[in-house]
Specification:
Length: 89
Amino acid sequence: MSVLVCMYNRKYGEIMLAIQLPIEIEDRLDHLAEMTGKTKRFYVEEAVLTHLEDLEDYYQAAEVSARVKQGKEQVYSVQDVRNALGLED
């Protein structure tokens, strides 16, 4: 079971998260940091940001898709867009 602790530091505008990681992930982070000269923090932040962006995109798309299926979101065909923009075929 992982433990997550959140602390907010107003002075630096950061939240500190402490999590328990399986030793295999810790070892991989150590190796990557040693190999590249960057910090484990750098790679953890990169991983969180990348995955967070993917999750945000996914849930936003799912929300729009649900609205389309419910008829609450207007959709346009490619031809409608081309005509509206005055593009020739």
